[in-house]
Design a protein that fits this description.
The chain is built from 3 helices and 12 strands. It is mainly beta. The strands form 2 sheets. Strands 1-2-5-4-3-6 form a 6-stranded antiparallel barrel. A 6-stranded antiparallel barrel has the order 7-8-11-10-9-12.
Amino acid sequence: MFTGIVEELGEITAVETLDDACRFRLRGPAVTEGARHGDSIAVNGVCLTVVDHEGDEFTADVMAETLKRSSLGVLAVGSRVNLERPTAVGARLGGHIVQGHVDGTGEILERGPSEHWELVKISLPADLARYVVEKGSITVDGISLTVVDAGPDFFTVSLIPTTLALTTLGIKQPGDPVNLEVDVIAKYVERLLGTQGGTR
């Protein structure tokens, strides 16, 4: 489990295309400290497994299904990525419960800078809109954020200077894709109530 509090801004250092997958080599000095084969690291909000690591770099395999459902397929050598290790039992939950299982992708539509923060508008797939509510939580590229406004096909978030400086949302522009993970609690409630797509 993750919390959506990005530990560092890493970088893709190599990409190997396989028949039905892709292998990334990533640089991340903080997240590789003490890393072992089989450990999990969230990359732009996608939970990946450490295949190997050496120094401040690690490799991870990405299946075709993950490439299809996320924006990892557009990454190339030099791309910056948000990195986070799983939260430890008993640690503070600084963001919200994040599984690292991307529900879909959105696209940055607009950016509106102001003196102390920036308002960003992001497109929202129709099948995820029911899980996104004003002042609720959403994960964007692995970042735990609070929804400012929720529309039928978009939502907005406000980004503080720290988020702009330490994550990919500081450099992404309109047209760039982002990974989205909605609040898992909302999905469990829907399932228990049997209300998916209407009442039973």
